[in-house]
Specification:
Layout (H helix, E strand, L loop, with lengths): L28 H15 L11 H19 L5 H28 L3 H24 L5 H21 L4 H23 L2 H31 L13 H7 L2 H4 L14
Helix pairs in contact: 2-3, 2-7, 3-4, 4-5, 5-6, 6-7
């Protein structure tokens, strides 16, 4: 007479086929909440679209605009040519910056998008004010430029600990707007020349940063120093893996709940 072993009892931690379940179907309220939250995360898909960085486009346009502005303020153009320059700034310069601002929001770069959006509307403002008043200076526009300079400084502060070169570009741009604002308010030729000199510095810094970012995107590594500090999100963008870079994605705008 032969005997056979009874089949082993199924492990309560498995579903009978050896696959482990995430947890019991029933339990304490806290367990049910955690299970529901985990299931919601598993059912949620976050799709990332690959867009090129808009920062080089915006920075190159900003650099060219400052070159034209510098030549104008330093007396390199006649009064008639200066009017042509203002139209060029409102079209050739403003449109690429506005496009870069839109792409900045799509690529989850709120600081860049906000910066380029504000800068893009300054050029058409110059044209509208000059056509409306018929004068090259305007005290309200000067106050506007000084206020914009303050906003640029506030935007530069967070980047001092992660992207100092980007913050230097912002601060230099703020100085240029301050100089231009004081010139608008006082109509002083000295401040006009100061604004032109600062504009040259801004153009050089913006062009260098844009060139460095373009080369970095093409070669997928840093070639020209851009001032990224170690241990920051800016540094991890070029050195960390995809999992680490997307760790904070559930807390970003468009994914998280409304603030």
């Amino acid at each position: 007479m032969t005997t056979t072993d009874a089949p082993p009892e199924p492990d309560p931690a498995t579903d009978g086929s050896g696959r482990h379940e995430a947890g019991p179907r029933h339990g304490r309220a806290g367990d049910r909440g955690d299970t529901t939250r985990d299931e919601a995360l598993e059912r949620t898909s976050i799709v990332l679209r690959a867009y090129a960085s808009p920062l080089p486009l915006g920075l190159f346009a900003f650099a060219i605009g400052n070159v034209l502005l510098a030549v104008t303020h330093l007396g390199g153009f006649s009064q008639q040519d200066a009017r042509v320059v203002m139209v060029m700034l409102a079209t050739f310069i403003a449109l690429p910056q506005f496009l870069a601002a839109v792409l900045g929001f799509l690529t989850r770069e709120p600081l860049v998008a906000t910066l380029l959006g504000l800068l893009a509307v300054t050029w058409p403002t110059d044209v509208v004010v000059q056509e409306y008043t018929g004068a090259t200076t305007s005290a309200p526009r000067g106050v506007l430029f000084c206020a914009l300079a303050g906003v640029l400084v506030l935007m530069a502060i967070p980047g001092l600990t992660s992207k100092p070169l980007f913050s230097v570009v912002l601060i230099s741009a703020a100085l240029r707007f301050v100089a231009g604002g004081v010139y608008d308010i006082t109509a002083s030729a000295t401040w006009m020349r100061i604004s032109g000199i600062v504009a040259i510095v801004v153009a050089a810094l913006a062009a260098y940063l844009a060139t460095a970012l373009v080369i970095e995107d093409v070669r997928h590594r840093t070639v020209l120093p851009v001032g990224r500090l170690g241990g920051t999100e800016s540094r991890s963008a070029m050195e960390a893996g995809l999992a680490e870079q997307t760790r904070s994605l559930p807390h970003e705008a468009g994914v998280r709940a409304q603030l």
